[in-house]
Specification:
Elements: H1 2-6, E1 20-30, E2 33-43, E3 48-53, H2 59-66, E4 74-79, E5 82-83, H3 88-97, E6 98-101, H4 114-124, H5 129-142, H6 158-170, E7 176-180, H7 188-203, E8 207-211, H8 215-221, E9 224-229, E10 232-237, H9 239-243, H10 246-251, H11 258-268, H12 282-307
Parallel strand pairs: 3-8, 3-9, 6-7, 7-8
Antiparallel strand pairs: 1-2, 1-4, 4-5, 9-10
Helix pairs in contact: 4-5, 4-6, 5-6
This protein binds adenosine-5'-triphosphate and magnesium ion.
Magnesium ion binds next to helix 2.
């Protein structure tokens, strides 16, 4: 697999310092097995990064090592070119720069009301009370949880709790947002709303890392995809590069995005020109088919005129 790992497939040219530079990161929950077995990764300012990999591949463990919830056994983390140590000052810096929405909201939620929960993070950042209030209300509005503001988070449904956990992190205004399987508990409308939230955060220049098992989401959303297996990165590249790589898909329990399969099929049936770019979203697919229909109507019209 090393040839896949070493293939530099980034779709943007970067000559500045990465926002996060991770080298040789190792972590074991017990002596017999490493959950992380030497992770090397650069994360660039403003990118949309998807992390894929089978259950147990190490994605959540990796995230928990990034903001010091778990302490790495080996390796280094640089934030904006500055090497982070395990002292309190650096851990605080990591935690205020990297906001993680946990896979399981029950591991994150601590306050007795939703409003208290969402304001908890900014309150601990020692920012003025009025600013905390503004951030809290804005984050609740973004995640459409204002109607739950005075309720106890632990008595919400799992999708509602997940939205509270996401609002928690939005209110903290971190540089890097990490979402660990954010859509897993969400209904389709809430997933779509979340994708809108991710787009807005990205438009505001934030760096976003999302782990997901939803290959269709990763295909349409990510600038770059990282694939984990057994505590290692086995591949990284653009969505097209990753999902064209059968070896990687098989190794990581992944499958092709539906739109890729459908478009390839239409191409081989001669219904779409081979030269067309594969659309990555349903909207792009609809746009492409409309353009092709308009083009074929124009050609037919021209043909009729010429033969008349
Ligand atoms: N608290 C824990 N104690 C012991 N082992 C753990 C613990 N959490 C995770 N592991 C083990 O560490 C490995 C990596 O788990 P991790 O949760 O990071 O995987 P993941 O890629 O996030 O999987 P999933 O897609 O299921 O969320 C697995 O083998 C898992 O069994
Ligand atoms: Mg996980």
């Amino acid at each position: 697999m090393s040839d896949l790992k070493n293939k530099n497939t980034m779709n943007k040219k970067h000559d500045e310092t990465p926002l996060l530079r991770i080298r040789g990161l190792k972590y074991a929950y017990s002596n017999d097995k490493h959950a992380l077995n030497g992770i090397d990764l650069d994360i660039w300012n403003g990118e949309k990064l998807a992390i894929l990999g089978a259950n147990g591949a190490g994605k959540s463990t990796f995230f928990l090592n990034l903001n010091g919830v778990l302490k790495a056994d080996a390796g280094s983390i640089e934030l904006d070119g500055v090497k982070m140590s395990q002292n309190k000052k650096d851990l605080n810096r990591l935690r205020s720069s990297i906001g993680i929405v946990f896979q399981d909201p029950d591991n994150q939620i601590i306050a007795s009301t939703v409003r208290g929960e969402v304001s908890f993070g900014p309150m601990n950042q020692e920012i003025p009370v009025e600013e905390v209030r503004i951030r809290t209300e804005a984050a609740m509005k973004r995640m459409d949880i204002e109607q739950f503001a005075d309720r106890a988070p632990h008595y919400l449904s799992s999708g509602e709790k997940k939205r509270v956990a996401i609002a928690d992190i939005i209110a903290m205004h971190p540089e890097i947002f990490i979402f660990d399987e954010p859509t897993a508990a969400l209904d389709p409308a809430s997933s779509q709303m979340l994708e809108g939230v991710l787009d807005r955060l990205s438009d505001e220049g934030r760096t976003i890392v999302v782990s997901t098992h939803d290959v269709n989401f990763a295909y349409r959303w990510a600038d770059r995809i990282i694939v984990f297996k057994d505590g290692k990165i086995i591949a990284q590249g653009t969505p097209d590069e990753i999902f064209r790589n059968r070896e990687v898909l098989e190794a990581a329990n992944l499958h092709e995005p539906t739109l890729m399969t459908v478009t390839d099929h239409l191409k081989s049936a001669g219904l779409i020109p081979e030269s067309s770019d594969n659309p990555r979203s349903v909207e792009a697919f609809v746009r492409m088919t409309k353009e092709l229909t308009a083009l074929s109507e124009k050609t037919t019209d021209t043909g009729v005129e010429q033969s008349a």
